[in-house]
């Protein structure tokens, strides 16, 4: 039976699996962790926790499960922190190493053929941060009228980060963790469909 504990259970699953995937790639070695070692985990957590928002939105629509406002606030704050710290820690690490600031430092960190993935990450960061701005001013008539486009922008950002992760995530280059990432991405397709149908039809949003 669905309860208000479902969001936290789902949160625990994605956080645990993300952490295990990251730890396995490191060979379960945690001594002398550097910023270069920590920043990938934050990116994984940001995307997978955001994934739970869409998954729970589908459950809410199909089963009428009431929104867990505490989970919405806490998880949103965690996602925001991870979104900012993921590139932030890398920028600090690269500054200490090469004395170069973003965006040049980010592009120099990857192979030339992967610079597009860095650009996708930057675009997604801007889109995700814009959501927090629009959410705070949603009562404004012009924002409410165009909310469907805000919703669509978040879908685009989730897709871009999915590609960004597959291209740049070293622990996503094979094995069970890559398969898990792909499965989560595939499950988002119907979630996106239901969310966009709701928003473009003018129904009240239950998105967390």
Task: Note down, in words, how this protein is organized.
This protein has 208 residues and is mainly alpha-helical. It has one domain (6-200). Helix content is 77%, strand content 0%. It is built from 8 helices and no strands. The chain has helices spanning 6-25, 35-63, 69-98, 104-109, 115-136, 141-145, 147-168, 175-200. Helix 1 (6-25) packs antiparallel against helix 2 (35-63), helix 2 runs antiparallel to helix 3 and helix 5 packs antiparallel against helix 7. The radius of gyration is 18 Å and the shape is globular.
Key traits:
single chain; 208 residues; mainly alpha; 77% helix; globular
Tell me briefly what this model is.
With 208 residues, this protein is mainly α.
What is the strand and helix layout of this fold?
Elements: H1 6-25, H2 35-63, H3 69-98, H4 104-109, H5 115-136, H6 141-145, H7 147-168, H8 175-200
Helix pairs in contact: 1-2, 2-3, 2-7, 2-8, 5-7, 7-8
By secondary-structure content and strand pairing, the structural class works out as mainly alpha
Counted beta strands:
0
Strand content: under 5%
**Low-confidence parts, pLDDT < 50 over ≥5 residues?**
none
**Integer average pLDDT:** 90
| Largest sheet data | none
The helix/strand series, from N terminus to C terminus, equals: HHHHHHHH
Task: Count structural domains.
Answer: 1
- How many helices? The count is 8
Q: How far is the first residue's CA from the last residue's CA? A: 21 Å
The outline comes out as globular
Rounded to the nearest angstrom, the radius of gyration is 18 Å
* Helicity range: over 70%
């Amino acid at each position: 039976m669905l309860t208000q504990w479902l969001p936290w259970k789902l949160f625990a699953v994605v956080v645990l699996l993300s952490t295990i995937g990251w730890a396995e790639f490191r060979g379960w070695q945690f001594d002398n962790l550097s910023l270069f070692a920590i920043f990938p985990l934050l990116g994984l957590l940001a995307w997978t926790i955001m994934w739970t928002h869409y998954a729970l939105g589908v459950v809410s629509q199909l089963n009428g499960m009431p929104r867990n406002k505490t989970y919405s606030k806490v998880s949103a704050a965690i996602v925001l922190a991870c979104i900012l710290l993921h590139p932030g820690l890398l920028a600090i690490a690269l500054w200490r190493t090469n004395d170069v600031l973003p965006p040049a430092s980010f592009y120099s960190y990857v192979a030339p053929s992967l610079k597009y993935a860095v650009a996708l990450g930057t675009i997604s960061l801007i889109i995700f941060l814009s959501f927090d701005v629009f959410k705070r001013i949603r009562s404004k008539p012009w924002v409410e009228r165009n909310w469907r486009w805000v919703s669509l922008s978040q879908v685009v950002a989730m897709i871009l980060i999915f590609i960004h992760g597959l291209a740049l995530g070293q622990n996503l280059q094979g094995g069970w963790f890559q398969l898990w990432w792909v499965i989560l991405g595939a499950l988002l397709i119907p979630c996106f469909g239901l969310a966009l149908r709701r928003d473009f039809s003018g129904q009240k949003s239950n998105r967390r």
